[in-house]
TrEMBL record:
<feature type="domain" description="Phosphoadenosine phosphosulphate reductase">
    <location>
        <begin position="4"/>
        <end position="188"/>
    </location>
</feature>
<dbReference type="InterPro" id="IPR050128">
    <property type="entry name" value="Sulfate_adenylyltrnsfr_sub2"/>
</dbReference>
<dbReference type="InterPro" id="IPR014729">
    <property type="entry name" value="Rossmann-like_a/b/a_fold"/>
</dbReference>
<dbReference type="Pfam" id="PF01507">
    <property type="entry name" value="PAPS_reduct"/>
</dbReference>
<dbReference type="InterPro" id="IPR002500">
    <property type="entry name" value="PAPS_reduct_dom"/>
</dbReference>
<protein>
    <recommendedName>
        <fullName>Phosphoadenosine phosphosulphate reductase domain-containing protein</fullName>
    </recommendedName>
</protein>
<dbReference type="GO" id="GO:0003824">
    <property type="term" value="F:catalytic activity"/>
</dbReference>
């Protein structure tokens, strides 16, 4: 069976649409709703599904847990081994793959795919890594299927992806504000992205502050989204210097934020 992971980011979206346009078969197109999506993302996903239905007669399979798993792992499930055994994790870490990626995206996809087709050797998983990303060594090792990278095969990078989505009229409007999309509370987003969140998405920004406050109140290990810098402190910086320059860059292997 053939499965595709679609985050709503531009790379995975372009991959799915172009793959179908070329006559490729996809049995399931998976979208993981983490409970922390931008409302604008969910609206976009609805519109994208309408496009897929109209042009390819394909629907999305939406994976969404009944419970808020981020809150469960942050504030309810204690660490079970190691030097921090018994403590609460708090917010996801900035570096590396943490429980949020594992429990909100990777595990739901894996469980669904294995429930439909348990033989990993019969499964192909389409992943939207660009030509440059794969060329630089970014690949996925999966125990439930064989990863395939259509954008790499087509030699598509950011420019080709952007132009394709614009030509099709299905560009995600969140890219008007962000260089990447993902959960609004993603700790892997840059300071510039957090400023954009603060400026244009006040409800989501307040939710981030609430999560930090709860982590601090419960004495969690990690209480801020950025190392040693809370959203309250960031907000004070933003208010003092609303035109501040941002020079942060992303490191691909450390970023969950979806392009």
């Amino acid at each position: 069976m053939i499965f595709a992971n679609l985050s709503g980011g531009r790379d995975s979206t372009a991959m799915v649409v172009r793959y179908l346009e070329l006559g490729g078969k996809i049995d399931y197109i998976l979208f993981c709703d983490t409970h922390y999506e931008f409302p604008q993302m969910l609206t976009y996903i609805d519109k994208l599904e309408s496009y897929l239905l109209k042009h390819f007669n394909k629907k999305l399979t939406r994976l969404r847990s009944e419970e808020d798993l981020l809150s469960k792992w942050a504030f309810e499930y204690p660490i079970t081994r190691g030097e921090h055994k018994g403590k609460l994790r708090g917010l996801p870490k900035t570096l590396g793959m943490d429980y949020c990626t594992r429990e909100l995206k990777a595990k739901p996809s894996r469980d669904f795919i294995k429930s439909k087709s348990p033989n990993a050797f019969k499964n192909t998983i389409l992943i939207g890594y660009t030509y440059n990303e794969v060329s630089n060594g970014r690949t996925s090792s999966l125990d439930y299927g064989v990863a395939k990278y259509p954008l790499y095969q087509w030699q598509w990078n950011e420019r080709e992806v952007e132009n394709y989505l614009k030509d099709k009229g299905i560009a995600n409007p969140l890219y008007q504000h962000f260089e990447r999309t993902g959960c609004f509370c993603c700790p892997k987003q840059s300071k510039k992205s957090l400023y954009t969140l603060y400026r244009f998405y006040p409800k989501e920004w307040e939710k981030c502050k609430e999560l930090e406050a709860k982590a601090k109140e419960l004495g969690c290990l990690n209480t801020t989204f950025k190392p040693n810098l809370s959203c309250v402190e960031l907000e004070a910086q933003f208010k003092r210097n609303p035109t501040m320059d941002f020079i942060e860059t992303y490191t691909e292997d450390m970023v969950c934020f979806c392009r």
